[in-house]
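ok trying again, last paste got cut off:
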Amino acid sequence: MLVRQTKDFLFVSAAAQAHSPAMDLADHLMCPELMIIGDSLAQGCRSLTVDKSLCAQSWAARVAAKQSWSFVTPDFCRYVLFDLYDEIKRLGPFHDVAAIDARFDNAAARMIENIEEWLQDRVESEYVCFDNLGVAGARISDLYTTTSERSNAYIRQLFPHKHFQPFPMSEISNLHLAINSRFVLNPSRSKTYDKLTPIGWVLARKPQRLIVQIGHNHGLYQVGADARYGAIDCSEPDGTPFLRSIRRVATDLAPLASGTNVIWVLLPKISAVAGLDPSSTERHNGYARSYTSVFSLSRSSLSESQVRSIDQQIRRLNVKIRQIVSTAFAGAAIAPHFIDAYRIFRDFDYKNSLDESRKLTAGKYGALDNFYLRQRLLASAGSEIVEADTLAHRVQGGVQSIDGLHPTGPGYAAFARAAVAAAGSHLFPHAIDELVVEESYAEDSLLKETPYNLELLILLLDLLRHVPHPAVLNIQPEGRLVAVKQDFTLREYIELVTGILKR
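nice, full thing came through this time. structure:
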């Protein structure tokens, strides 16, 4: 296999991009009712965390369950690197702690232990392959270049002795992608499947329906996470333009159109994510005056005109994506279908519209909205911040998770409901009702048991963003190592976990 190392993982040369090595798959693996390929939104990532239970509650899994279809999701034996919700629950009370001194005690040790377990590379799955091939952090080109073999090569390069050793924090996104994709693309760890890309698996198995959800990791994630103005259609590491990669994926999938319904999910409305916090209660034609980040250390902000401009760019880019995919499938027996994620996010955008009808109903749990998840106001006593309850009570938010971009359980369920309605009964015969959204709320630990420390953590992050402390402003993550017995400061840990999707 021909590879060359770049700062952004390993890029596979064109000569090594064979999708589907010759193989015979068992009959029961062929022609599944539904498959999905893509990035973190396809995989079911929530609060920047990837594990078995979250993948089982992905929106495609909700769709399949309602249709009574078998749909096999990654059965991880452990989370990938960290469980953000659990780490926040573990935080002790922040009594008299300056923001710069706050720490995630033992979080590094837990991450290192997790890496050590992954380095053993054991066969831990009962499956040969999965129907959900979404991989958090994936770019468009990962659909036709990333394989289990390639991912394993990167892991072995970073840890040549198959044991943990200190590595640059700047490699965290590549390591997360490699561990994730090595397992997702070859859970049996068989050499037979080592060279299959996500598209390779699809071409080999020929599903009856294929969902494609990709393109968020070319700048769009950074806009929503860090309130930083920039391009949303950045090129691949080798310089391949965004739309050319879209065309490559569409062209590679076009041969499926004789028997597969390809369903392409367009890009969402970024101003609707909870991670972009409005600066005021005033709205002008559906936008606030400015927006800042919430679960981030970024000190950037976006003006109304900038956010409006990015939303307009997304709409124009969606038109181009639709045109390119449709052209690639021209003359095919089955034309591609499109799900307008921009419209779905807009329909749930209470934050910008302040239209009560756009709140999400979760049955007995009440209405949810797309503001950042906030809890009952906490009491204060002197210089101490004290908790009002062991478990705080939600007063706003609930559609999106801790990171402010990925949906919660009911957020994914609501997306599934809207996507099924948009796709039509000829693709998904059974509609998803509100009861599924209510049930998904009951299964979401973050909403059912919101740790009071989340509110305190958000306050400390706000302090770190606004206090011009030299120790805050001069830290550069590229030069630091994730080392044994090192506890993460608050700043280091937030940099680390929010960096997994910033390749």
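cool. Residues 36 and 211 are 5 Å apart (CA to CA). The longest helix spans residues 304-328.
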